[in-house]
Amino acid sequence: MITIKSDEEIKYMREAGHLNYLTREYLKTIIKPGMTTKEIDDLCGEYIKSIGGIPGFKGYGGFPGNICISVNEEVVHGIPSDDRVIKEGDIVSIDVGVMIHGFHSDAAETVPVGKISKEKENLLKHTKEALYIGINEVKPGAKVGNIGARVQGHAKKHHLGVVRELCGHGVGRDLHEDPDVPNFGKYGTGVTLEEGMVIAIEPMLTLGSEKIYCLSNDWTIVTRDKKPSAHFEHTVLVTKDGYEILTGEK
Length: 250
What we know:
Blueprint: H1 7-30, H2 37-50, E1 54-55, E2 68-71, E3 74-76, E4 91-100, E5 103-112, H3 118-135, H4 144-157, E6 161-162, E7 168-170, E8 177-181, E9 198-201, E10 204-206, E11 212-214, E12 221-223, E13 229-231, E14 234-238, E15 243-245
Antiparallel strand pairs: 1-4, 2-4, 3-12, 4-5, 6-10, 7-8, 7-9, 9-14, 10-13, 11-12, 14-15
């Protein structure tokens, strides 16, 4: 069921979104070669609590980490590990959920570690662009399919794969709510957006094939051809005149 948020609920979601932004900015200052993803996750969990939030992913469906940390060919749901060491040239996707007052925020970005290849630079650049191209379609009366059509078109233009099995979603009291927000589709189709809806838009693009599979840990999704993947996401409110990015800089 799709929920329309009240003014009070939107206020809480703005607060959750701001804490999410602060957390991602903090993470970008600490991620360095030689760190394990578990070290990053532990520091992140402490930081979220220090600013008054609750790690929204911790224990969700049994997920063991505070956040998802996915490296290179890992698309999403990377489990923080003492065995995964970040290296110069890696790209690291940090997917962050922060909850406060019973409401969730969900956002992600993929960050470079030191100097990365030109191919990886282009992947990050165009995946981030695809996110904002999709967000620009958000307004009352628009169709959810418009978002996916624009993301898919941008990815195709730059010869990037679009992961189809995973998608964006509604956000609110639950981390994942209706409607689904795919990263592909046909313009003018799908659910109609209404003022007060809150959705997470999250392109996941790859340097190779769009084919993916899940590791034996039952969480981490990786590209089948082992080529790098990038993930950018914002929690977005549908406003009277368009949209507001709740997890962006204020």
